[in-house]
Design brief:
The protein is an alpha+beta fold. The chain has 18 helices and 19 strands. Helix 4 (106-119) packs across helix 7, helix 14 (513-541) crosses helix 15 (549-576) and helix 14 crosses helix 18 (621-643).
Length: 653
């Protein structure tokens, strides 16, 4: 039984013992599916279900506060705050007044604003976005970028994290300075590859600002917040005067200190502060095709089009609507979006045909990945709610595909995520340390090292159709896209369709790059350590250094170059351990790059030393072999400098 199942069973038992009226005990999701048991979606039943699940999970995962809202048929069915908005002050979470930061759920407001302007005839989804900008987004192989591609995260931008969360107001740029924000590299042809882009969403918000003639923050306030009566919502940074008293603190863990208010460099991508009650109005408006209590933020046809499938990278899996993404929900039509800052973690789900919306937000990351996307409390709430009120129809498990063993061998290999930065040193994280290994056993059952379930255990995938897989023991699906007999993308439905896995080029494969790094690093370390050790031994026995002249200089310069390479590697390790990196730390990165440049130039010494050793009479076999090994290790280090882009003209990440 999974952790989520145990939680559901415990909730059901507590609920039954409480004698609460109007609801039945909830068996685990798997049993629900088998029994075809559907619970009445009532306020009492929802309250009993979440009251049995959420507090215990919060305590286990060290989460300070949670807000949950459920809407149904144009009304708020359930809203409740759990835990504390301020641990030290003992202030509870109030869904009506407590402000949370829902992160990238902010983008749904940006995309709604875009569709308002499309509806007004001021924007064209398929026009070159340069038509609306005061700077140029260069084409990719002659192909321009469109608003539709921005809304489906298929514009092809590399990921970027530099200055995303500036440390203070002096580092915060207004949206009007969008042209001053470094543009990420375009690494994929537009409209072909899912790659999540905060920059792309902010570019859309900037276009809203330019086309409407209003500040983005003001536009959303006037054209979305005001019609919906969202009086406790804002994109302004810092918060308007008097709002801070209602702002929830943000935590890594409830037992730790709170963090500071998180500023977002790209407001349209994630700067929203709002309450659970206000979010209910936004959900209802979208569930009712743009209308809330007689007020319209979108025409019905526009809203329906916005909610429809627009981009489906893997045909067997959910795809992207315009801004929203499709989600697996026992065959029900659900769209939604997640949102994460460093401290707040949120999910919004709209069951379109059922006229139901679900919103959850945590003010803590918690322990054990409780706040992480695709796992922990957020996913347990969504899946448990879906299985309880919209259970899957009973069906027999599909048979294993006949070509499972052959297809498993084709799929096996190393992969890297499409949501990556290719511009600089962060390639260490994606290509050197972050590759995903796909393996297939003798029966064709596949494992993907980065695909884990809610319980954080490695999932095992059984092929049920041509390169279509189902996780053993759950309903999760995975699929591979095959072109020309080769894998081009791997995706799963447990994760939003804004990122996929791609096969790693042979030159960057983890098959040989990490071993090369370890071996060459060990050789460089041995060369450095034996340098003073040999001197100590000579001194102990009263021997003099036998090399003179050019040979002596090359010997010493070679060891010195090895030392500089090791320092270069350690400095990158140290840098990656730092919590805050931004423009104000560029000088540190540049200093590290200078150290690396010295090492690269200094490689002349190990190479020259090889010739010196092999041409000098009387040098033993150990001196000859070690000189070659050291020179080869220095050349390997240069390979990593080049392939990981550790020394670049611009500092982008």
């Amino acid at each position: 039984m999974t952790r989520a199942s145990r939680i559901s069973a415990l909730a059901a038992l507590l609920f039954a013992l409480s004698g609460a009226a109007g609801a039945d005990p909830a068996p685990p999701p798997a049993v629900q599916s088998a029994w075809q048991m559907t619970h009445a979606l009532t306020a009492d039943d929802v309250g009993a279900y979440f009251d049995g699940m959420v507090p215990s999970e919060m305590e286990r995962a060290d989460i300070a506060g949670v807000v949950i809202v459920v809407v149904k048929d144009g009304q708020t069915l359930f809203e409740r705050g759990y835990g504390l908005a301020d641990v030290k002050a003992g202030r509870p979470v109030d869904p009506d007044t407590t402000l949370f930061r829902p992160g990238s759920i902010s983008k749904l407001f940006t995309w709604t604003a875009v569709m308002q302007l499309v509806e007004a005839g001021k924007l064209n989804l398929d026009a070159d976005i340069n038509k609306y900008l005061d700077f140029k987004v260069p084409p990719y192989d002659g192909a321009p970028m469109t608003m539709r591609q921005l809304m489906t995260h298929s514009g092809g931008f590399a990921d970027t994290s530099k200055d995303l969360f500036p440390p203070d107001l002096k580092h915060l740029k207004t949206l009007g300075r969008m042209r001053d924000v470094p543009m990420p590299a375009r690494i994929f042809p537009p409209g072909t590859t899912p790659a999540y882009s905060n920059y792309g969403a902010s570019l859309a918000g900037y276009i809203v600002q330019r086309v409407s003639g209003e500040r983005f923050e003001g536009y959303v306030a006037q054209h979305i917040f005001a019609p919906l009566g969202m009086t406790h919502s804002t994109f302004e940074q810092p918060l308007p005067k008097g709002w801070s008293a209602n702002m929830s603190k943000g935590y890594r863990t409830a037992s730790g200190p709170p963090g500071q208010y998180e500023l977002v460099q790209m407001p349209p991508a994630g700067a929203l502060a709002t309450t659970g009650s206000d979010l209910s109005r936004f959900m209802i408006a979208h569930l009712q095709d743009g209308e809330y209590q007689g007020q319209r933020i979108l025409g019905a046809a526009t809203a329906q089009y916005m909610h429809s499938l627009q981009f489906q990278p893997a045909p067997a899996l959910p795809g992207m609507a315009l801004g929203f993404y499709q989600e697996p929900a026992n065959g029900h039509r659900v769209i939604g979006h997640a949102g994460d800052t460093g401290q707040f973690h949120s999910d919004l789900h709209l069951y379109l045909d059922d006229h139901v919306g679900l919103y959850i937000s945590l003010n803590s990351a918690g322990t054990g990945g409780a706040g992480a996307l695709g796992s922990g409390l957020r996913t347990s709430v969504f899946r448990g709610f879906t299985d309880r009120y919209f259970p899957a129809p009973r069906s027999a498990a599909p048979p294993t595909w006949a070509d499972a063993k052959t297809d498993g061998r084709i799929l096996a290999g190393y992969y890297v995520g499409t949501g990556r930065s290719d511009a600089g040193w962060t390639r260490i994280l994606s290509f050197l340390l972050g590759q995903t290994k796909v393996s297939s056993d003798q029966d064709g059952v596949v494992t993907v090292s980065s695909y884990r379930g809610v319980n954080h255990q490695l999932q095992r995938w059984r092929e049920i159709g041509p390169f279509q897989y189902q996780a053993i023991g759950s309903a999760s699906r995975m699929a591979a896209v095959i072109k020309g007999g080769k894998v081009t993308l791997v995706m799963r439905d447990d994760y939003p369709p804004v990122e996929a896995l791609q096969p790693v080029p042979t030159a960057m494969s983890a098959v040989w790059n990490p071993p090369l790094l370890y071996v060459s690093g060990a050789i460089l370390a041995i060369a450095v350590l034996t340098w003073p050790l040999a001197a100590i031994i000579r001194r102990w026995y009263g021997h003099s250094f036998e090399l003179t002249g050019r040979a002596a200089w090359l010997y010493r310069l070679t060891r010195l170059d090895c030392l500089v390479y090791l320092a270069f590697a350690w400095l990158w390790y140290w840098l990656m351990s730092q919590r805050h990196l931004g423009s104000d730390t560029d000088w540190i990165i540049r200093l590290i790059q200078v150290v690396g440049l010295v090492a690269v130039v200094g490689t002349v010494a190990p190479i020259a030393n090889v010739g010196q050793v092999w041409n000098q009479l009387g040098r033993g076999w150990w001196a000859k072999v070690s000189s070659v090994a050291i020179a080869a290790s220095c050349l390997a280090a240069i390979w990593f400098v080049i392939s990981l882009k550790l020394i670049t003209p611009q500092i982008a990440y």
